[in-house]
Amino acid sequence: MIKTRELSNGVTVLLERSERTDTVSIGFWFPFGSRDESDEERGFSHFLEHMLFKGTKTRSAYQIAREIDRIGGVLNAFTEKETTCFYCTVPKESILVAIELLSDMVKNSLIAEEELLREKIVIINELRSGEDSPEDKAHELYLRNTWGDHPLSLKITGEENDVRGISRERLVKFYHSRFTPVNLIISIAGNIDEETVLSYLDAQIGEVEGVKFSLSRIPPRSKEFIKIEKSRFNQVQVYAGVTFTPSNRMEEYYALLVLSTILGESISSRLFQVLREEKGLCYAVYSFRTFFSDSGIFTIYASTGPREVEELLQAVRGEIKRFVEDPPTEREVEDAKTHLKGSIVLVREDMETRMKRLARQYMMNGKVYPFEQSFKYIDSISRERVVELSEKLIGEKNFNFLVYGKLRNVKTIERILNGEA
After folding, report:
1. What ranges make up the beta strands (E) of 245-283?
2. Do 203 and 148 form a contact (C-beta atoms < 8 A)?
3. Which of 44, 86, 337, 419 is the most buried (most CB within 10 A)?
4. pLDDT-derived band at 210, boundaries 50, 70, 90
């Protein structure tokens, strides 16, 4: 059973107890990320994600690492464009250790000058490794062409100059204005004694002070584009997509999930079977959905060689067109639905996935649905609903295209993408 509780200090706690496991996963979530930084704060959220591992008033960086290692647990974190999370997955008997450790990291980080200087080097190397990834580099260009200089299209890490310019004084001010318990959401999934956990959380977090961070988000304006860019990379990266305004209706979320599963989000999907299995044009091809609070993108991705790119682009355009003109059959829709329900059964065994699901649904909808409700939503999706959505999302819009890599004949590619060849 999923429960939403509130500590005496006002912090929201999401709980999902499972007796069928010996593990617990707990996440400390902040409902803001790189999108919510000013121009002078680019990369601050991600940098703080790193710094909270670098020592507190009572623990050194080594002691933080040793404390989680000695119990065989996992301590990690991630920064996204609209969220930041610090989490532990541990044996069930070590949940109090995880609570104390996360509470200390979030509340009492030192952000020492010497650690900050060292971490700049680490993050700059992280940035440069991304520059060496053709898929990452192409995706960055894809977002930039879609949304221009809007914060959703910018790097979560910030640029190298942003990282070099971070000072301890400004980072500490940012930390105290945002990464405080007043902004915190806690999600826990696993084999727990709920009252013991809630009582210990209350004691560790203590009184909550400060002012809650107020989100002020401006939706991005989408552009239509066809972008062809040569690069030093040998393979060619292809991104094709359309933007949409997401609905807070879970039915629409699952309808898009069924659609994407049929088109490209499974190995029996149309894109995978035609482009890879039948025509052998690529190794990687799939579709995916990206949701933000006020914007979304539905994307097709493929990677291929310079000799195959022209035929692959023709095939991608052909499958997009065919999806509307030859819409999914009843069998395709039913197969997608059973695929999704089977996937949910599998991920339900993973406490980390369940913990993340709790927080993401809560931040999206203000409440969390049990797995059984997800099954009901999937079962409710009809073939007619998928066809209706495909006509609206795919049939009424032109797909944006980014082609990036070692290109031999740019003019031919332009004609293909403009429907002239």
Report:
1. none
2. no
3. 44
4. confident
Which helix (H) or strand (E) segment holds residue 104: the answer is helix 95-108
pLDDT at 247: 82
**What number of residues does the chain have?**
421
Question: Concatenated DSSP letters for 379-414?
Answer: HH--HHHHHHHHIIIIISSPPEEEEEE--S-HHHHH
Kindly report, residue by residue over 52-109, the tens digit of the pLDDT: 999 999 999 999 999 999 999 999 999 999 999 999 999 999 999 999 999 999 999 9
Q: Considering the entire predicted model, what is its pTM?
A: 0.94
Cα separation, 138 vs 401, whole angstroms: 11
Return the active site residues: 49
pLDDT for the residue 24: 98
What gap in Å lies between CA 353 and CA 239, rounded to an integer?
A: 27
In contact, 97 and 26? CB cutoff 8 Å: no
- Rounded CA-CA distance 417/68 in Å is 52
The per-residue pLDDT for 287 is 98
CA dihedral 294, 300, 304, 310 (to 10 degrees): -110
Q: Does the pLDDT value for residue 209 go beyond 80?
A: no
Q: Which domains does the chain have, with CATH numbers?
A: 2-205 (3.30.830.10), 226-417 (3.30.830.10)
Residues in CB range of 202: below 8 A, 6 or more apart: 7, 8, 9
